[in-house]
Amino acid sequence: MTIEVRVPTLGESVTEATVATWFKKPGDKVAVDEMLCELETDKVTVEVPSPAAGTLGEIVAGEGQTVGVDALLATLSEGAGAAAPAAAPAPAKAEAPAKGGAAVDVMVPTLGESVTEATVATWFKKVGDTVAQDEMLCELETDKVSVEVPAPAAGVLSEILAPEGTTVQASGKLAVIGGASGAAAPSSPEPAAAAAPAPAASTGKDVEHAPSAQKLMAEKGLTPDQVQGTGRDGRIMKEDVMKAVVAPAPAAAPAPAAAPRAPVAAEDAAREERVKMTRLRQTIAKRLKDAQNTAAMLTTYNEVDMTGVMELRNEYKDLFEKKHGVRLGFMSFFTKACCHALREVPEVNAEIDGTDIVYKNFVHMGIAAGTPQGLVVPVIRDADQKSFAELEKEIAEKGRRARDGKLSMAEMQGGTFTISNGGVYGSLMSSPILNPPQSGILGMHKIQDRPMVVNGQIVIRPMMYLALSYDHRIVDGKGAVTFLVRVKEALEDPRRLLMDL
Question: Where is the region Disordered (predicted)?
Fold first, then answer.
């Protein structure tokens, strides 16, 4: 029985994609849901799984070919034993057998939901080193987390295919373990069956080139000016880079940078150090700038007398730790107070989706945590349903794993509101930036003794400034001020939380 492999749904308003890589060739046996090929759209990479177990027959759309939604990619003969057609072999990345023993490929592990690429941060071993099974070989960095890659088998690291700084795709090959390095050079790219589309004229706007093309350009030492892009709006695809490697075009004059760096004196330049931004730092920078560019961000301030919380904490902290095995901190009080206020002002817990407002009848609380690699925001799911002890345990555990770089992508997704505590670093006042697509973020600050007037008397009280940044497109000033006042009231008299007042 012949089964058709077709282009899946690519996403809203996306009507076509380019076939980037075939992981199988005609005649290969495939299992159900095994990845057959990878498609690239203007923004994302889409993997196409096998709809059934069997043998891959004809590849209809070769690498580099543009295909529409539901277009035929290949045929599959269901069941074992189907012979591959003699003609139309697809280009395959063949590998010669290792000499003196079986070679084992070291592949990029699963990176997390929607994560398609990573950067090789550190190799702990070098070519020729003997490695034990499950011994750490290298560390990869994604947009949010670090991923360690263990050795799949014991042997000798015979070849490193992705050195430090290389961008690798999900399911890509990192290295080879065996008795000797026997990897053959990648086969020369076959010319596309169909005529290549005419090069697109420059549109003058930013074009995001295919991730696989960017990786290959970095490996071959090419710049985008040296490659003729044939994708939409002049987008460079992997096939374009491979053509440029075979027949490099004359080097073009380098284009001026969009924001050139100011001239630096020679004696100063000699004392500078240039370090490439990590993927995490690049993502933080992009998301923060996107938040400023997208949201109508505004910040409102208030202050809270922490006497009530501190007295309650001092009275019960020993008993609390003895019973629950975790220290009673301030974060559980602030989380409870925010959940209480979000029920009264639900738009602060909502998000904008096009022309709709999506209200959340739950609170997934993001707790910003500083790490040596940068700021990350683990999410406490259903924080409004958790007790003080449950909150303290989960906040402490996720904070510890964040500092160790052990958080998964899933643990940092889905937040509806965020709390950021700059006070642990000594910050007295700041304006936090929204964590898109959320509409609100609360900034905590340093607790400082200040003279306050209470009942006509000047007394010394432990005070903290609070800052609520919010998206003014969805949250009005009245709602923002009301939210902050409710948080202040709940913290100054924690009994209100018990009475739901």
Answer: 180-210
